[in-house]
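pinned: reference chain
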Amino acid sequence: MKTPIRARQAAAIFAVLLLSTTAHAVGLFRAYVASDGNDANPCTLAQPCRLLPAALAAVADGGGIWMLDSANYNTSTVNITKSVTILAIPGAVGSVLAIGGPAISVTTGGISVAVRNLVITQLPGGGGTDGISMVANSALAVENSVFENLAYSGVYAAGTGVVAVTESVFRGIQGYAIFLENGMRAQVAGTRMLQNTAGVHAKAAGAVITRATLTDCIISASVYAVHSYAENAGASAAISITRSTIANSGTALRAESVSTGAAEVIIGSSQVHKSGYRWQVLGGTAAVASYGNNQFLDYAASIGSLTLIGLE
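pinned: its structure tokens
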């Protein structure tokens, strides 16, 4: 017969085992990776994993993954299928490489993904494409991150989801810094896009609306700084720019429509200078509109007319 003390001890041990089993089943609230970690570890602070896929398997839906020091944390595309925040702690360079495809891929709908303090670049000769590719009706937040030397786009997003990019840098990208299509909505704030082939592209095909809002941004040295493109009838693409600077580009503002698709670029409280074309309006239902409080300097060429709209 068990004594009361032994019974309580047995109950306590059972409770600990049950709690441990439950925690394992639902995943960690916070998982950790480190340069000296091991993917056979449980991804805890005391025993971190080495690579992001192992941490993603260990973390709970809605949890976070912390990069504890400076290292690269993937060997192939990181596929994200749950809501998660991935961040490098202050002072660490948390690197994710585009190798044989995008560095990070999101194809699961209805989730929320955030990255913070990351450096996303391409492995030389590794066949990389985009920095982050999201082809899903999900939400993506990018904060204080650097995208550089990528073969395609820094952020590529397609679908009826949302993208928010704040205080980040895109440079040396061979395609677009940010490419949006098929109904995606984006807010970009306090971000620099430097020496990329193109800056922000909003494309719509079919009966969808693709929109981007840029605030307090700098776009420099691109073939196209911003480009809204409605591919066919019923499509709508729009880019709105506020308190931003566009400089040293082939074309600063480009709105292009096909058939009766609606494409527009709206700009206010901003500066455009030293570009081959201040604006290009291509197609009868395209428009570049100004609130009249912008500075267009250096008298560059233009195609089509600028539409003036009043301040409310």
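why pinned: The chain has two helices and 32 strands. Confidence is low (pLDDT under 50) at residues 1-25.
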